[in-house]
Amino acid sequence: MKILYLETSSKNCSVAISDDEKLLCLCEEVSENYKQSESLHTFVEWALEGAGLTMKDIEAVSLGKGPGSYTGLRIGAASAKGFCYGLKVPLIAVNSLEGMIEPFLGKKYDYIVPLIDARRMEVYTALYDGETGKELSPTEAKILDETSFGELKDKKVVFAGDGAKKAKEILNLPDAEFKDDVYPSAQYLIKRTIEKIDQKEVEDIAYFEPFYLKDFHGVKKKKSSDSI
């Protein structure tokens, strides 16, 4: 089964294609400016070319559904829905945090804690078993302080994601590992996507919404009179 994967929840605009569990091509770029609107469809074209396929060969679309950047998630969801409608193929959605733990599974960590930066001292996070990948606490928006994750003090734990940098500065966990160069990536959606397809866990394309976790708060523009 040829599957197209889109992951746009973070600074990493990421596209992958697989044949069942075999990764055929990956195109991604981390940008501080969130270039999903500029790069996503170009990356899809490049990934198809790299895999030696055309869009008509795609049999399902998988999306990293968030949490993460509101704008990035909107772009990814709109594109995924468009592809699914046009191709008449199913949509599968995977929690973006689940993909982040994939590189660390089976590496003798007791726990894996993905951390997506949500501005100020807030992060999107969840707790996963380091061996099985089982979710031990649900995804949440968490404000970090000195006592956060104190229950993990004597455990072998890795904090992964762009929220790990500020976590390292404030958490009282000297033995923990912090990997702040980790972002959600389309290549790590493959395993969970195949599981969902086998279990027939597909989305209703018409009603699907990304996993925003919290409401969007835009920046209020100043009126011209405000600057006088």
From TrEMBL:
Query: Where are its TM segments located?
Result: none
* SUPFAM superfamilies from the UniProt entry: Actin-like ATPase domain (SSF53067)
Q: Which domain of life is it from?
A: Bacteria
Q: Where is the Gcp-like domain?
A: 37-133
Annotated InterPro entries = ATPase_NBD, Gcp-like_dom, T6A_TsaB
Q: Which Pfam families match?
A: TsaD
What is the protein name for this chain? tRNA threonylcarbamoyladenosine biosynthesis protein TsaB
UniProt source species: Chryseobacterium lathyri
